[in-house]
Hints:
It is globular, with a radius of gyration of 14 Å. The longest helix has 21 residues, at 80-100. It has one domain (2-100). Helices cover 33% and strands 25% of the residues. It is of the alpha+beta class.
Amino acid sequence: MDEDFKRWQEITHSSENGWVEDHITRLNGRGALFYKGGENGRYMRISPKGMLMVGTYEDAYPHIGEAIFSPAAQHNFEDFDKALEAACQLGGADFMTDILMAPTPEQNEPNCGFEMKM
């Protein structure tokens, strides 16, 4: 248990300087969640059907699943891919660089990267 807690803390802290994807959200079939800021920061969430929500979060300790989310805006796109495209535009070059250049998952973890369609 202590090992899991330590790993969650590392992942949360890794978002202090760049955007991170919460792989659990996607692996559970709940769309995508991207966040930046450590324990308190900004997020973009995309539902499987294409709803893009952006806002801030607080108290993501030990991990983002514990955070309190405060939505600031949302827009319903025709599908997930269109919402992801809008998220990339909103996040700009920093978002795209952070997400696309994220380290390769460990061998015992599922492949968690997005395939961008341009």
